[in-house]
Request: fold
Amino acid sequence: MTSTTPHDATVTGYADPEGEAPWAMQLVIHIDKADPPTRTAVCEAAGTAVVRLLTAPEATEEWAPAIERWTDGRIRKHARRASRPVAWAKVADLPGVTVEHDGARVRAFVPTATDAIPADIAKLQLSGTEPADPDRRTRRVEPVPAGVVVVTLNPDAEMPLGKAAAAAGHAAQLAHDDMPADRRDAWESNGFAVVVEQPGSDDWAGFVDGAQVRIVDAGLTVVAPGTVTAVARWA
Reply:
């Protein structure tokens, strides 16, 4: 593990100019009712999707103005669900990046103002049945494999799936921003793979202490302001 000062980032909410709506990146999770993905797989796919969108060739071309506007201040992400195949098909053609991972399918979309979210995304639900999670990792992944970012979710934050997926996306994004260039290159060569841990409450403090990135929530939704929702580390 590299020796760096942990980066604490408040990444939800946005200090918008007066009269402007906040901006957000939308994440859509495909939840097949007959064969739903696990929570762990969704969060891992979400983390990878966010980074792949921000590093896609279009991110420095036609998507650049929207991404720059969004990242000018605090970043915000909303995760929605598409259960019906027709709903997923409608959003799959909108500008963004889809990641399929361990049975999960998540698409990250180019950020927009929250009053300009495409209608086919805006009408999707933000919550629903929580999936089972037989893949949950409660023990520390050690050593961290090369070319992987490990994201640890706060067990005490009681985050529903969408909030957890957004937190994983936040942590992966800030990890990409903070890591040295050689580590970033190795991660990119491995497809920006993300591994998600969900320890028990008694072990959480140890994961925070060993993190290189800490995500501090602004408290606009389901957790209290100042809550560390996720941390990330890499080799």
In short: Helices lie at 39-55, 64-71, 85-92, 119-122, 161-178, 181-189, 204-209.
